[in-house]
Amino acid sequence: MDATHSASAIASAVRRGEVSAVEVTRATLDHIAQYDPRYNSFTTVTAERALQEAAAVDAARARGETLPPLAGVPYAVKNLFDIAGLPTLAGSKINQQQPPASADAHLVRAMHQAGALLLGALNMDEYAYGFTTENHHYGPSRNPHDPTRSAGGSSGGSAAAVAAGLVALSLGSDTNGSVRVPSSMCGLFGLKPTYGALSLQGMFPFVHSFDHAGLFARSAEDLATCFAVLRGEKVAAPYQDMPHYRMARLGGYFEQGDAQAQAAVDAVCQALQVTQVVELPEVARARSAAYLITASEGGNRHLDRLRTQAADFDPLTRPRLAAGTTLPAAWYIQAQRLRTWFYAQAMQLFAHTDVLIAPATPCCAQPLGQTELRIQGSRLPLRPNMGMFTQPISFIGLPVVAVPLHLPGQLPIAVQLIGPPGQETRLLQLAHHLQTLSVCSAPVARN
């Protein structure tokens, strides 16, 4: 047994003594060595640490101790999480010169306490500013469903590693869509929780107003278990009965995707018997406001680096951060005002609806190096517009579960299940229900 199995299956097998955690780790390391040169998902492999953690799990079992819920499960983290003894790269060249982290990030410690085994740090867009993980310093992460295509971003390495079965779980971050876009590109279940639901301690920041920690898995059950662990909560039993929820499809702005994106939403709505269509007002303005806040806060955060080390930035990142330093404060303030108004509009919808359904991306994974999208007859810049459906949702901090669909003859694509703040359990229940209906799935891909 190795990381191609689900996290729950691995933990159960380790708990029963069918396989040791050390055996799982060695098999996982072999798979990383064999397959990751094709996908470039890892920037660092922490083999020695993983084997030490695995040996501790096996020793605890030998002593007759009750093992924690993720005992023996391999995982890895986006390289903006602090890992004790390693510099926290955040996808950059500049951070290579920083002292190694003195301690693990809060969520890495939570995974360790749950018995999970850290296999390493994962590739990303520099400073989390991108949707394709085409990193100038460390190379692009490649999509396990088609290595000529993007794994999405900015948590592209996190998604690719899980999609290829190199680890069972991974942690990423989502500011404007950086978990949901890679989930869609790589065909995974992904969770962007409510803003503030997971600690950001020990994570290299991008935009304080929107930064979220998030996670990837190949099943809704694994996503739910991992989220409970990260929250420090008791892991619930697998979902049984499906409660009745009031659900609606987001129309208007969210109908701009290509035929595959709309077909994916159609399939989810049909399975859930959703017929109602509702609209959020002024979504395009909300997205523009999110861009202003992102650029302003991101540019301000990196202002000193831009002044002293501009040549060391990724050329795809530097001009956007530099532009952000020039934005007037009045624009930023007005964007934050619109954010408050837009949140109130969403809450009015949730007064009558429990779950909103929308595409995660306007299309499936596109070829690496491509710069434009063709959507419904329009030509759009690719890098920003892969997040056209995710950015307005993280703008107001709503929880989202991305559910992957594998439509016949096509690359995977995901749909967003969106809820009011604090309702992650509701969304995870729906994701699990869609999985039991065989509407959504996340098989291991190695091409």
TrEMBL record:
Residues annotated as coiled-coil are none
Source species, please?
Methylophilus aquaticus
Can you name this protein? AtzE family amidohydrolase
The Amidase domain is annotated at 23-428
InterPro entries, sorted: Amidase, Amidase_dom, AS_sf, Carboxybiuret_hydro_AtzE
